[in-house]
Structures are given as structure tokens and as C-alpha cells.
Amino acid sequence: MSRLLQKLYDVCGMIAGGLILCICLLISAQICLNAFGRFAPGILPSTIPSYADFSGFMLAGATFLAMAHTLRSGGHIRVNLVVSRLSQTTQFVAELFVLIAATGLIGYATYFMGALVVESVHYGDVSTGIVPVPLWIPQGVAAFGIGLLLVAVVHTLFDLLSARAPILSSPGEV
Amino acid sequence: QSWDMPTPYGDSTFHTQNIAQFADDVREATDGALDITLHSAGSLFPHAEIKGAVRNRSVPLGEFFLSRLSNEDLAFGVDSQPFVATSYEDAARLWAAQEPVITELLAEQGLIPLFSVPWPAQGLYTNGEIATIDDLNGLRFRAYNAALEEFATLAGAAPVQIEASNIPQAFATGQVEAMITSPSTGVNSTAWDFVTHYTPINAWVPKNIVVVNQRMFDGLDADTQAAVLAAAEAAETRGWEMSAAEAESMTATLADNGITVYEPSATLIEGLQAIGETMLGTWDAAASDSARAVLNAYNN
Amino acid sequence: MSDPMIGLILLGLLMALLASGVWVAISLSLVGLAGLVFFSNAPSGLVLASTFWGHSHSWALTALPLFILMGEILLRSRMSDDMFSGLVPWLSRAPGRLLHVNVFGCAIFAAVSGSSAATAATIGRMSVPELTKRGYPESLILGTLAGSATLGLLIPPSIILIVYGVATEQSIARLFIAAIIPGIMLMTLFASYVAVRAWMNPDLIPAIDETFSLREKFRASRRLIPVALLIGGVIGSIYGGLASPTDAAALGVVLATILAWTSGAFSWKLFGAAVMSATRTSCMIALILLGAAFLSVSMGFTGLPRNLAAWISDMNLSITALLVALTIFFIILGCFLDGISVIVLTTSIIMPMVSAVGIDPIWFGIYLVIVVEMSQITPPVGFNLFVIQGLTGIDILRIAKAAFPFFLLLLLGVLLICLFPQIVTFLPTYMAS
Ligand code: NA
Ligand code: NA
Q: How many domains does one find in chain C?
């Protein structure tokens, strides 16, 4: 189960990386069109419609999908200068507190991101640019990503409880 | 009771000043029972999120650019359709036709329109005078929505997407050579730094709208509701006057700073209106019944 | 409850959460949530969701992951090593030697990117490992990087000047021009500081024993060609009108990849590793930005920064006293909020009092940006500190300590533009006439 979940975080992380590459390709294509239009006007269309909107949506997708993967690789930063000077037992309690607080906040955020998607579906919200994109699609990806972060936090909480020792301060082990 | 109100534009914009006056009027009329705090320049929510935030009651009321909603229904965007309404009189008639229709559309989302105020009419900025529509041929033209993109293509110009904040640099580097925007935007982006000519072709008169959440409004007592509606009506009247004054003073500012302001020639207007007709055809094919209803009411 | 009391409670909560090791982004969001739930009447859950969504898909933000990716590719290619080897002969006599790469590298990169986080991430990705390998002291490596990267905000293009220009309706072109001399001034201050430190304590900087003839210098410089092509290509595309500053980031990635491949020692595997590393770093920064945005919205609802600014406004101070009061106010606020939030939350109150005493709004914009630059390197909430912790794993408090001299240099910069406003106003006035 644990390995299956880890696989899921990593696959989503890779999709996020792919989205960043897609942003790069999309914008590069637009620059090529700009250059073409400058030197040989009128041959190719001059713009990719709503490319800024699409880049933004892909960025949101990349951010939210990578959250769980980043958490499990110790990529989200925290201040451990204070905690690392405490005894192992106190560190364990501190990490328990950290993970419970994070579970609470991210659970809350997941619930309301879900509510946002439901609302977008209900009212059929679309983006305001040249190409109308149904907003529930990128919002749904975002909600899924933050939901996966919730799973990863709870997963880490289980790891902590079964290890009975602090695990967050040495990111290699997470 | 205290209400937070997000608006997208800065404090020196006449729209924001008008709304600040509206908030003062409400406070005074209700003896402070309803206190509206203004959060200007998108400081609470980005422009794109304001409508949603009012709808889900994150905030009770807010302002946004009306034709942003034209992807939901073309009825919202009639005021941004080129050469349909090209003067304040036309714009006022168009709003009279548009208001009942969009009131109904917004009601489906639990929103009530309070008042709507136009921006000054949109003029054409170029380097050199544009005498006929052919002069636009081959120019790189700033387009930030579907209608402008279609307009540019029909005029034989090349549409280019440029963010408003990037306008001066885009002109300086030759990325764009012409744009249609209001004299206010021209002054704010110090258009005299990068263009020489301006002509008030009055392509369209777009509007901002202030909406309130139905359930929040219903939660007010009858006296407060009446005070809000009275202040809104006053704000609409005042806003239209401010807009006309703004158009005049901003055009003068353009001229004072060395931009040649000229009246569009009859042939140019003719050419532009021909494009407007063609665009209206495309528009009509995609329009919903409500959007057509607006246009019919306006034309009769 | 009174405003100062609410402020202190929220500050205490933020400190406690951070100290107990709660992730920075989560700490910021929790404090924002506490502010909304206890001290405002807004529906906190919906505001949280709207803010997280609304701030995650902004176009201005898309440049950030791309610049970070560019840094990751350069790090894994031979180019970053080449760049340092190429610069060694030129900087071997300069007091402070290769530390100046941080200062000038950040200044040059600041002309490409609009944010200080992207500048810190891209330059730091290459310079921190190279300088550490060569034995430079950690505090100066981190300090010069954290400090100089703040130039990303001031040297145009600058996201924060755009935000200020839009919020106050000032010409963005004029703001950009006004920022040039102050940017060069700060760069000079930073470089001089490095030189003075090296001159006072010669053992601090690892020696370069070889001496180089002019011919050797030029031969070594050939290794700088790929990096020069990259920088030239990116800056050229912006000023040649082919790309907006956000677009240019994508071009930077493409060019970096091509150059990495042609200069050898690059592979698909390294490319994949670069992409994944960039994905994690930008996700980390984006999540903190979302937390900071939510905290900022929460502050907007509670009205704390607004009331604080209004309190200063009610004192009816003279210009000098007002600027002193505002600087202290912004430094304190900048410890806990990110720079853009500070500006957005307070301009409505600050601008009227600034124009009332007759301060030039263009000058004030530059002043604000320098003050906001300080907030990037003050703990607990300083984005350059976060980025560098993400790069090096070194705790933000240690980085903040290393960056403290640069905080003082920025303060000196503020003092200089207050004493000699011409530093800011000269170029815009000159261009206008
Ligand atoms: Na910059
Ligand atoms: Na700070």
C-alpha cells in the first residue's frame, strides 16, 4: 500500500514536470510565431489563442500535482533549527504536532477546493479569454493535487507513528 | 454591519472614486449601520475571481468589467462589440436594453446588478495618421480578446496579444504598432512616449458593473436596502457624468503631451463600420436568444 | 480586541508554528485562517479556496518554474563550471574574487527576470556549489547571493514595479527607467562591501596563485561564450521585441538545453533530473506563495495593515519623519508578509499621504521597491531565504544572519535616495525633456 501510494506521488510529480515542459514548448511556439511574423508577415497565424491562459492553467496543474511528491522528497521547507536541538522524544512530539496541524489545514483546503469545483460545474463557469475553457477542468486537477497532498501528509503521519521516532528532520528517510 | 468590497482598479481611477463615494453615501444614509470597506486594485481578490467571490458570499458585493462574462453569454458583451454603440447616448440606450436581460442572467447565479458605469469610448492609437482602413493593413495590432482579434484580421492587420502592463515596452520594441483603447489607458501608459497619433473612433463603450449577492442583500432590513439602492442609482448617474468628463480631460491630456488628436475621416468611419457589420454577422451566428433580445431591443 | 493586540497574537502564532517546525506554507495559511476565523466575518473556507485557485494560475508566475529549470539545466551541464573557470583569470586580482560572480551574475540576471526568487534560484543553483567547492566562506556565499538576488525586483523588468504602477496609475516605462541608476548603485554597494571585507581580512578569500597573461585571459574567456550566448539571446529577445519577459524564460530554457547539449557532457537522464528538481523547487515556492497570498487576503479582511497605515497617516508627519516612520513600518510588515502583499495592502492609505506631503510618486515607487527588497531577506518570511534553504538545505535563520549586512546596505541605499533624490529622478526627467 505504502509503495503503491509512493508510486502515485511520483507519477503525479512526473506529470507536473511534463506540464512545465509543455508551458515551455507552448511559449516557445508563440515566440517562433512572433519571429516569423516579424520577418515573413502573413504566412503563419500570428498568435496561439489564449496561450497565456493555457500556460497559467498548466502552471496551476504542475504546482498542485507536484505537492505530494515534493512533500515526500522533503522539498517543502520548514524551520528545524529550533526543533533539532531538542531531545528525540520532544522532536517526536513536535513532528506529531506538525503533521496533525498540516492534516487539519490541508484537509480543510481540500474540502473547500472540492466545493469550488462543484460550484464551477454547477454554474458552468468558463475562462474569460479567447478560448472559453471550462474552469472545472483545471480546478479539478488542482483539487485532486491538494487531495493527494492530504493523503501524503496522513501517510507520513502513519510512518511517524510506526517508526516511533522523529522522521521529518532527516528528509532522506521520508 | 460591515461589508468588504473588492474592486479591480486603482484608487485614482474614476470608477474607484465613484465607488468610494457610493460607500460614503450608504454609510451616511444608514447612519453607519452598513459600513462598506473598499479593497481597490485587486488587493482582496484578483479581477478574475471577484464575480465568483460575490457569488459564494466570500464578499457581499464587488465590481468587475462586464464583458469579461461574454464567454458565459454574449448578452454580457454587447457593449464591447465594435461599432454597435459609439456614443454615450447610444451606450445609455444599449444599457437600457441590456440591463433587464443581464439582471435575469445574473439572478440565476444569485447576483443583483446595482449599477454600471462606462469607460470612455475606445480610440485608435498609431504612429502616423490613419486616413482609410487600408492604412491599417499589415500593422501589428494589439488584441486582448476574441472580438479584437477578429477586428484586426478583418482590417488586414496582424493581431498580437499584449498584456496591458507590457504596452509601452511592446511599442518601443516594435512588437505592436497600433492599439484600440480608451484615452484613460492611453494617459496611464503615457502613450506619448511611443505613439504620435490618436483618433477617437469611439469603437465601443465598455462598462464596469457592481453586483451584490442576492442573499446578503435580502439579509438587510428594508430601510438599509432602500438606502443601498438609492446610493446605487446616484452612483450610476454620477459615474456616467464622471466618465464623460474623463473622456474630455484625458483626450486633452493626450494632446497637451504632444499627441496629434484628429477626427476620423468619413472614409475611415465607413470602412470601420463595414467591419463592424461583418463582425455583427459572426456575432449573431453565435449569439444566444438573450443576446439577440438585447440587440433587438436596442435597435428598436 | 484592539488592533495591536490582534497583531501580536497572530505574530506569536506564526512564530510558534514556524519554530515547532510546521512547513512554512502551512504556517502562513494557518495564521491566515486564524485571522479570518477569529477576527473577521468572512467565510474562511471559501476565501481559502478562491485564493489558492486565483493565485495559482497567474500568467506573471509562469516565468518562475522556467527560470528555475534553466538554472537546473545549467548546473548539470558543463556551462556553469565553464563560466567560473572563464571568470577566474579576470577576477583573480579583484578583492573578493569570484564572490563578485554572485553580485554581477544576479545583476545581469535581474535584467532578464522580474522576480528575486527566480534570480536567487537560477544564479544560486550554479554559484553556491562552485564557490563552496573553491573554498569560499559560507556566510559570504549565502549573503552575497541572498542580497544581490533582491536586485531582481529593482532592475527592470520588475513584477513589483508593474504592480505598483498599475495600483497607483504611474507610467510603468518611467518606473523602469527610474530604477536603472538605483539598481547600479546598489550593485556597486554590494560589490564594494565584498571588496572591503576581502581587503580587511585577506585570509577570508581563497587565493588564486597563478598569474595570467592577457593572452591566457582571452583564451580562458572562450569558455564564457556559451553563457554569453544564452544571456545575450534571452535579453536580446526581450529588447528586440520578440518576447515579453515571461516569454523570455521559455526561450532561456530552450537555449540552455541546446547549449548544454552542444557543449557536451549532457544527457536525457540529466535533463530528466533537471526537470524533476525544478518541478519540486517551483512547487515549494508556489505553495509558499499561495500561503502568503492567503495570509495577505486574511490581513485585508481583518484590516490590520490598513489601520496601522492609517494610524501613521493620522500623525500628520513632516516628509522626513514620514519617511522614517514608513521605513520602520515597511521593515516590520516585511518581516511577516511578502513584498507584493505589503504594497497591495497599504497603497490605498499610503499614497494619499505621500502625495499630500508632495513626494514624487515615481521616486516613492523606487523607494518602496528597495524597502521591499529588504523584506526578501528578513526572517521569518523572506522569499530569498526560502529559495536558498531549498537550494542548500541550510536553515533560513542562518541564511538570514549571513544576509544581514546586505539588509544594512539596502537601508543605506534607502538613505542615499532620500538624501539625493536625483539618483531616482534624473533619468526619467532627462528622458522626458
Ligand atoms: Na528584474
Ligand atoms: Na521578510
A: 1
Is C45 inside any structural domain?
no
A74 interface with B at CB cutoff 8 Å:
no
Is residue A172 situated within a structural domain? no
In the chain, the amino acid numbered C317 is L
Confidence of residue A5 (pLDDT cuts 50, 70, 90): very high
Q: What is the ipTM of this complex?
A: 0.94
Facing B10 at nearest CB: one of C166, C176, C245: C166
Evaluate whether residue C38 is within a structural domain.
Answer: no
Whether residue A169 is contained in a domain is answered as: no
Say what the pLDDT of residue A171 is: 45
A171 in a domain, yes or no?
Answer: no
- Arithmetic mean of pLDDT, C324-342: 87
Quote the cell numbers at residue B124: 485608435
CA dist., res. A151 & res. A157, Å (int): 10
Range of the structural domain that residue A104 is part of: 3-163
Compute the distance between CA of residue C182 and CA of residue C188 in angstroms, rounded to an integer: 10
Interface of B with A in 204-263 (CB under 8 A): none
Domain-embedded: residue C11:
no
Q: Do A46 and B140 touch (CB under 8 A)?
A: yes
Give pLDDT tens digits for B130-169. 999 999 988 889 987 778 888 888 888 888 877 776 787 7
CA of C121 to the centre of ligand 1 (A): 14
User: Which candidate, C117, C124, C197, C123, places its Cα nearest to that of C381?
Assistant: C117
Peptide linkage before C380 cis (omega within 30 of 0): yes
* Number of domains chain A contains: 1
Q: What is the pTM of this model?
A: 0.94
Q: Residue C170 and residue B187: Cα distance in Å, rounded? A: 10
